[in-house]
Amino acid sequence: MNNQLPLYRDASASVEARVEDLMSRMTLEEKVAQVQAVSLRDSTAAEEGLAGIVKAVRDGISQGIGQIENTFDPRSPQESVREVNDLQRQLLEETRLGIPALVGSECAHGHAGRESTILPVPLAMASSWNPELVQEAFDVAGREARARGAHEAHTPVLDLGRDPRWGRIEETFGEDTHLVSQMGLAAVAGLQGGRSGNVDADHIISAPKHFAGYGQVVGGRNFAATPIDSRTLRDEVLPPFKAVVQEANALGMMASHCEVDGVPAHGNRALLTDLLREEWGFQGYVVSDYNDVPRLEFFQRVAETVEDACEMALSAGMDVDLPVAQGYQHLLKVIQERPHLEEHLDVSVRRVLRLKFKLGLFENPFVDETRALEVVDCKANQEVAERIATESIVMLKNDGGILPLQREELKSIAVLGPNADSKQVGNYTVGRTGISSFLDGVRAVAGDRLEVRHCKGCSIAEVGWDGAQSTLHQASMEAEEDSISEAVNIAASSDVAVVCVGGTTETSREAFYVDGIKGDRATLGLLGNQLELVRRVVATGTPTVVVLQGGRPYSIPEIERLPVAILNTFYLGQANGAALAKVVFGEESPSGRLPLTIPRSVGQLPVYYSQKRISFYKDYLDEEPGPLYPFGFGLSYARFEYADLRLQAAEISREESLCFSLKVKNVSAFDGAEVVQVYLRDKYASVVRPDKLLVAFQKVKLKAGEERQLNFALSPEKDMSFTGRGGVSGVEAGAFELEVGGSSRDVRLEGRFEVV
Q: Which domain of life is it from (predicted)?
């Protein structure tokens, strides 16, 4: 080379030229290394502590490596930066070609690393119905992850959360295709620093998951079968993924644990290559969900050997095997025995290298320790965390106008229940200090004037089926009677009582098929003696507020019938207490809306609103009709009136947009925010269609007495097309109905138009 740098080291050369030059220099062993990963969480070395894990990682990257997994990082930001920089230095200086690694992370609700800003869980963020604010939140996560040396996050979850029994429901953005799509676009844009697909030095690659259908597990049981028909897959499950690929240029994608129509995603070329790349134009790389390549053999049993599983995954378009190449560690042998697979290997290696060049890692794979300290959990990030937590609180009931509490009229407040002092924030975090419980928030607001009285009252029962006893491990009433009585006495002698109930990260979490880790539920009520605690507090006659907190919705028809106020909060992150206190005491009006339907009981499932019309034809003999709370529902301290729906045209062609406007007015003395929701019903179609579908929404903040005109535009191709007979997607001519209101069941304005 006449002492010149090789072309792949020339930053002025095109990415494609650099990729091809580097590929021409690589041995088979070096190429195989680029589709493998090592993990800083490797449990095989965990007995030796962090030092042992790091040593195992160092030993595993002698030929280079595609990706280093640093999820759930237990180190401080400074320690994390030093560790990642040292590993990158080893790759640059001690391997033949000096290829840096991508560093993978998790950012479901903030970067999953010690001391990082903890945001509300996705189900809570979706409750804000504020995509702009959600993008700000994921911008925080992306910046903090990159500042600590990460380049990619297995985020966001775009599965439809339609079964509240599923332990991973908190990771979703809810049940609706349009809402999940909008939240997904916001999340990807936040993590990647915009929608261009050009990730700058302050952001990371977004790899949405789980592609595709994972959330539709039968019975709400993790890893169960996913019986999805092709029309539901095309029209409801896939659109959020298509949106983030084509509208936000997501550069990563994580395949699903599940199978659809009998074909596991990790071995499904029709899904990972034909659809994702050739039909949609995806330009990034596909990573495996953890250990799912070898699961093709030992779990799903579509491959007879792990070598066959490797061939199946590589041929399908699986680019990197996470977290420790449990399958692709056999790939060198597989390709030596089946040389035709090297062509598929080369395709995947090019994708990995292309991203490394686009991120500028060959020029500078290192991060600044000082920068990490400035960025991680800085004041601006804390403010974003509190704003989105506040907007994610949903008021379900306000009997007699109990809320907001008037501090000047109160002398004492009882803060009760097992979650009153809870600092739990969800399952995708690493322990940290500075988390605000509701009790902390009340004390901060109360100051010296208002007496705050606290008692736990009861516990949230430990749940687990005991095969020998055939009973659930739940705290008995006798064991907790003294504590419940104390809480009731405190409530009786206080001016107001707030009872914080719900769940824990142990009673709602990802359930593993190994190690007996459970998190899915067969019931949706409050565990243990929580319902009894609420009943007895209300019976004192003291005005009572019930706060629900946890990772899933709870069926509480007994509490709904009581004269109480009810606030629903999915885990709100580190600002939980401050946000709740501001809403309870009226500094902020609740503006959250439910991103899913809450059933009266498990027997109503499935209960999501967008089922086919015929699904709502009959009700149950022994259950009150309709859900406990409908999709999109939420109350405010303010009241809003809708008026003057005007459609620009009564007829449109398939190529025209339907433009329309309406007016919303705040007719109360409170400032507040309304979420205006637009639903579309296809009156007649060639196949049976959903009863109605959310197609647009706007969150509008109005001062007392303020009125505003809102403008909307619907595209036939995006908002009215579906998969018809013969499996062809398109827009059919005919009549459509518009419904505008404050939830899927709150119709304020109606309109009609035709596509001709």
A: Bacteria
- Annotation: CATH topology of 393-592: Rossmann fold (3.40.50)
Whether the per-residue pLDDT at 471 is higher than 90: the answer is no
Weakest mean pLDDT among 56-65, 128-137, 219-228, 701-710: 56-65
So what's the pLDDT on residue 3? 60
| Separation CA 325–CA 334 (nearest Å) | 14
pLDDT digits (tens, 9 = 90+) for 211-228: 999 999 999 999 899 999
Read off the tokens for 126.
Answer: 């979706």
Question: Do the Cβ atoms of 239 and 285 come closer than 8 Å?
Answer: no
Dist CA 497 CA 491 (whole Å) = 6
DSSP codes joined into one string, 332-400? HHHHHHSGGGHHHHHHHHHHHHHHHHHTTTTT-----HHHHHHHTT-HHHHHHHHHHHHHT-EEEEEGG
State residue 366's pLDDT score. Answer: 97
Which CATH architecture group holds 25-375?
Answer: Alpha-Beta Barrel (3.20)
**Top CATH class, 640-755:** mainly beta
Q: What pLDDT band is residue 42 in, cutting at 50, 70 and 90?
A: low
Q: How far apart are CA 252 and CA 205, in angstroms?
A: 6
Mean pLDDT, rounded, of the chain: 94
Domain ranges of the chain: 25-375, 393-592, 640-755
Q: To 5 degrees, how large is the angle CA 264–CA 269–CA 272?
A: 85
CA distance 413 to 471: 37
